[in-house]
Each structure stands twice: as C-alpha cells, then as structure tokens.
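Researcher: Next sequence.
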Amino acid sequence: MAEGLVSVAEVETAFKKFAIHGDTKATGKEMNGKNFAKLCKDCRIIDGKNVTAIDVDIIFSKVKAKTARVITFEQFNQALSELAPKRFKGKAQEEAVQHLYSLIKGKEPANVGITKVAKVAAVDRLTDTTKFTGAHKERFDESGKGKGKAGREDIPDASGYVSAYKGKGTYEEKVKEA
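Model: Next structure:
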C-alpha cells in the first residue's frame, strides 16, 4: 500500500460505529439514511458549498436498493465515490476518494447537544434548605432532609370514631359542656 493511503478496513470501522449509533438493534453491517447523513456531517464531508445535506440524501437514495431503507458497506463505498468528486473538485477520482477516506478514518459519532445535569448557582440557591424561611423551614430537619407529612402542623386529627367527634378523648368534654 502506498504511503498516506487509508485502508478500507479503517473506513469500515468508522462505518460500523456510525451504523450502530442510536439504534440498539443495529448489527453494524447496514447503515440508515439518518446515520449516513450524520457521518457526512461529523466527518466534514458536508461543507455547505460543494456538498450539502440534500446532496448526501440524494446520493443515499441513489445507491440503496429500491425498497431498502439501509445501505451496505459496498453501497456506502459507491456513495463515497459519487460524493468525492463533488467535495474535492479538480482532483482525480481515486485521489478524491482517498481524501474522503482520510476524513472518515478513525471517526466516531459525536454526541453534540446531550443534556447534562443542570448545576447552576440559581438551582443550588433555590434548593438549599438552610435558606428557607417561615412555614417551609419547619418541613426540613437540621441536615436538610425533608420530614414528610410529619413536618406539617396543619394535618387534622381524625382519630375519633364518629364524624362529629374528632379527636380521641373529647367526648366527655363535649358532654359536660351541654
């Protein structure tokens, strides 16, 4: 192999990583259109001038089988050979394909925009139980752990056995008043 040439095996490794991205049932042998577009975007094949996302979608549709929704590695290589002259204008076909291979080699799907746990000063301030005042302060113990229902004073005493006589031991007092 000549110096600087990227092997097909290295490109196939990247193909497999992108093929299984976001799909738990994927085997890595076939790639869907969404992941093909992601590969083209993450590996900077889509440059916005010569190659756009629309070009990638058109070429994907062109190389896949009529009823299929996925492409194999062979069809993937066919798609790359169609994308190469568009991306690297003025270069020979083989040279352009090698440039594309070098863009793809060793790449993995980038996880951009994944939601992280918010650790903002405002959230910390709002959830700090030591700064609570009034009735809210009574609902937490010294360690900041909530007391649950036991921390509330407004829970009615429903311990009586008749609806009119709430509270244990109050019957005698009510009878005396009457």
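Model: The radius of gyration is 33 Å. The mean pLDDT is 80.
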